[in-house]
Design goal:
The structure holds 2 protein chains of 2 kinds. By secondary structure, chain A is mainly beta. Chain A contains 3 helices and 15 strands. In chain A, the strands form 2 sheets. Chain A has a 9-stranded mixed β-sheet with strand order 1-8-7-4-5-12-11-14-15, with helices on one face. A 6-stranded antiparallel β-sheet of chain A has the order 2-3-6-13-10-9, with no helix packed on it. Residues about 1-35 of chain A have low confidence and may be disordered. By secondary structure, chain B is α/β, with parallel strands linked by helices. Helices cover about 35% and strands about 15% of the residues of chain B. The termini of chain B are far apart. Classes of the chains: A mainly beta, B alpha/beta.
Chain lengths: ~280, ~180
């Protein structure tokens, strides 16, 4: 945009208008807003844009009592917003999507459940860059999409530093812990909390010493299997918080091993096996 | 008239500011949390609020610079990931220079900011220069301080940010960030 000379006000206005038009075309018809009241309209337009981009040619239905999403309405730390997904369990589920509407990479997590999963409760911590809607979408085995939504207020999560120093954050990358919650009863669902040490650098954090942006390095997939049977597969990217913590349900039919394998964007693989029951904290 | 408008705008936001005590100005650039309460003043520059700014832009030549952060697409983000940054609303005519308000920008970015301002003002150090980002955001305070250090004599800091601008029901335009080093 060329708007350099003092006195070139008209030219500047034209240049900006051109950018506005180009922006609208690129961003699927979003128009410049002129007042606060348009915020709701903006959000609705954004959600429409995301649906078309993430679920092209598919209909996203309302939650229909199948899924709910919970998060603090005003998050204390935008880089660590706890989100809980609750699924009623009244319909068999293929998986769950977590979408943070206003994040630049809105698709925060996509879980696909395996035969060993208890797909009723999931908890994770995410980065939120703005006042935004969060959408949780359950995909049923028969391919229907059901969405629940929650509005969250937080600011600054995407550029908050991962920690005081990048090297410290990378020191024991990939270390895992698994905390079993509740009592083990063969054949009964139980909850487990997985913690993975990983800075999950999103490329927008500045190294306080070098004064350059720390290159993105983030967890792309996590697979959890129990005695060889899939519990879940997770696709994620830069919206997961530093040191991801994921709470999930599974059904152990006997004492066995939970194996967790994570891949990150630098092609590193981290894996760990946990005895169930037996290791209270890995 | 202008003074009256200014006073009422200041009064409005003054009530809000009173709830959170405004910190004193730091000696140098602010390197603490970006989204934190900001001072009520800037040495060597002027604080301006929405209506007064709108009047200024109507009657005077001014260069408006938005120093908000911009999302940066990680190079190693898989092609299958959804990358859809929100459209960025700005004061119409503003130049968006992400990073120019960091406490310690990388040296090439600092240089870029200096040259970009020179170009935008046509090397007129007396031209009105307006720096803003978001409400309760230090980036614009740093950006304004930097412009003052460059030698601009007519620097306005608009601490209410784009939120204050929109709250005053003033028009915005969607802009793209400048590609900075």
């Amino acid at each position: 945009m060329g708007l350099k000379k003092p006195g070139a006000r008209t030219g500047r206005a034209r240049a900006v208008l051109a950018v506005v038009l180009a922006g609208s075309a690129l961003l699927g018809g979003l128009h410049p807003a002129f007042a606060d009241e348009e915020d709701d309209q903006d959000r609705a337009a954004r959600w429409k844009q995301l649906q078309e981009s993430i679920f092209p040619h598919r209909q996203v239905l309302d939650s229909g009592g199948i899924i709910t999403v919970d998060a603090p309405p005003r998050a204390l730390d935008a880089a660590l917003v706890p989100v809980e997904l609750h699924m009623a369990g009244n319909k068999p589920l293929k998986g769950v999507y977590l979408i943070i509407d206003d994040n630049p990479a809105p698709m925060a997590a996509h879980f696909v459940f395996g035969p060993k999963a208890d797909p009723r409760d999931l908890k994770l911590r995410v980065r939120v860059n703005a006042y935004t809607n969060i959408h949780a979408i359950a995909e049923t085995q028969d391919g229907q999409l059901h969405a629940a939504t929650k509005f969250v207020k937080a600011a600054g999560g995407c550029s908050a530093p991962a920690g005081p120093d990048d090297n410290a954050a990378l020191a024991d990358i990939g270390r895992m812990k698994l905390r079993l919650m509740g009592d083990f009863n063969a054949g009964k669902p139980m909850q487990a909390q997985l913690m993975i040490r990983h800075p999950n650098f999103n490329g927008m954090q500045m190294n306080q010493i070098t004064r350059y942006f720390t290159p993105a390095r983030f967890i792309r997939t996590i697979d959890a299997t129990y005695d060889g049977g899939q519990v879940f597969h997770l696709d994620a990217d830069i919206s997961l918080s530093t040191d991801p913590v994921i709470t999930f349900g599974f059904v152990p039919h006997a004492k066995g091993q939970m194996k967790v394998v994570a891949h990150d964007s630098s092609n590193a693989t981290f894996d760990h096996s946990f005895d169930v029951p037996g290791t209270p904290s890995g | 008239m202008l003074a009256m408008v200014h006073a009422s705008a200041a009064g409005e936001s003054g009530a809000k500011v009173a709830a959170v005590a405004a910190p004193a100005e730091p000696d140098g650039f602010w390197n603490g949390p970006v989204n934190d309460p900001v001072p009520g003043t800037i040495k060597g520059g002027k604080v301006i609020h929405a209506q007064a700014l709108a009047a200024l832009l109507k009657h005077k030549n001014a260069v408006v610079v938005d120093v908000s952060n911009a999302p940066r697409r990680p190079e190693n983000l898989p092609a299958s990931s959804t990358w859809l940054p929100l459209p960025h609303h700005a004061i119409p005519g503003a130049i968006w220079i992400p990073g120019a308000g960091l406490g310690q920008p990388p040296p090439p970015l600092d240089q870029y900011f200096r040259e970009r301002l020179a170009k935008a003002t046509g090397n007129d150090m007396g031209l009105a220069l307006v720096l803003y980002c978001h409400q309760r955001c230090w980036l614009s305070w740093n950006g304004a301080k930097r412009a003052i250090q460059f030698g601009y004599r007519n620097v306005y800091w608009f601490p209410d940010g784009i939120e204050g601008w929109r709250k005053a029901k003033l028009p915005t335009a969607v802009v793209q960030p400048e590609v900075t080093p």
